[in-house]
Known about the structure:
Blueprint: H1 2-9, E1 17-30, E2 32-36, E3 39-45, E4 48-58, E5 63-72, E6 76-80, E7 83-86, E8 89-101, E9 109-124, E10 138-140, E11 145-161, E12 164-175, E13 182-184, E14 189-191, E15 194-206
Antiparallel strand pairs: 1-4, 1-15, 2-3, 2-14, 3-6, 4-5, 5-8, 6-7, 8-9, 9-11, 10-13, 11-12, 12-15
Amino acid sequence: MKLVLFALLLPAAWAQEYEIGGIGGYGYYRDATVFSPGGDATAGIRSRFAAGVVADQNMYRYISGEFHYLYQDGDPFVSSGSVRGNVNGQSHAFDYALLFHARPREAKLQPFFEIGAGAKYYRETGPAPQSQPLPNIVTLTSESQWRFLTTVGVGVKYRWTRHVLLRADFRDYITPFPKRLFVQAQGGTDRGLFQQFTPSVGIAYVY
């Protein structure tokens, strides 16, 4: 057992690798629901493109640590039946994740599972609607808000050359409901987390 742990976790400091690169993809949101005495409404973020930066430290043969930054262009909206309204917005996600590789880092093809934590900034870039679409259920605001973030995902890296890695990920960015963006009517409540499902591809330089 000691030999197995030693082989998995031995930090080869003299051979550590670092990666830095960019990713691009698309963010699909799982929306939440607001319940109030005046009715129910969907509150969410529009699904749009995403782009970001990754910086990775390959600490062990099967485990690495990775910093992610992801920008997603998506407008907060509310809807109920045929009534819908939105405000211009975007989000900025920052997290640090541990990657557990199925094969050693020397392998050409490296599938992995990842889990991490950080923070996400929901930023409004436009004014709230002058005429609120669902004022008796939920109000759209021009406020911005930080929320605690957890991430999980799977992916694969492909060592194209000694210094170039190609990668593909599928990550779930999970935060609590951003209550400052969506103000519920008196007596209202929300149900559901905000989840941004994001498939992406990227390229990284290894040194």
